[in-house]
Amino acid sequence: MATKRISDEPAFVLHRYDWSESSLILEVFTRHHGRVALVAKGAKRPSSNFRPVLLPLQPLRVAFGGDAEIRTLKGAEWVGGQVMPTGEALLSGYYLNELLLRLLARDDGHPQLFDAYASAVSVLASGHGEALEPALRAFELILLREIGLLPSLDMQTLTLVALEPHARYSLVPEAGLKSWQEPDGRASLSGSQWLGLQRALDEPGPFHATLQQAAHVMAELKPQLRTLLHYHCGVTALRTRQLMMDLQAL
User: Fold this and answer.
1) Are both 213 and 115 inside the same structural domain?
2) Cα(39)–Cα(18) distance, rounded to whole angstroms?
3) What is the pLDDT of residues 82-129, one digit of tens each?
């Protein structure tokens, strides 16, 4: 069988592991092929062209080939145009990477999710701190929707009854979107707020529309998405989230 070669593919490095004294294994998020594992031979050598390029949160164009589970990186070029995020924004970028590593199957392309990730990283690199949290919430919603883990936000999940604009509803792992019962202590949004998020997600390029909607419901939306993500990741706290909390406690 002929070796399949992919060229000029938009990509971001999610994680890298030592493979030998001179080489790396990369987890890469590509636009058309999803998450792929690549070996970057000789990337740790001082003379390697890969060495200054294979950085997280930086837009790349890559070429790779092979038909094994771990394919071979043939070329990588930095696209440019944005600086490396710093501080809280950098940790937030690593948080996005951890979500993709935990929730995305390999070799499953999600072009719209890739575009949302690129937009989120651009926001993180911009230095506009007020946009950081809305960008994270928008990406979380699009990620969950793209991989089939977000219910429709315009109806109650179990009954398929339409939302009432002034009633309150909670997003819960076991039952999707359900009518809010105040004694259970869950966060909630109004029906009109959920409907606004659904309309934003239905936009052709949903990231910025969803970011704008999420910015108005930050306090109530964040704990609901966190609970849902932890449930599907099978953890009580993501590593990057715990690191952020530890640093804030210092």
Assistant:
1) yes
2) 10
3) 889 999 999 999 999 999 999 999 999 999 999 999 999 999 999 888
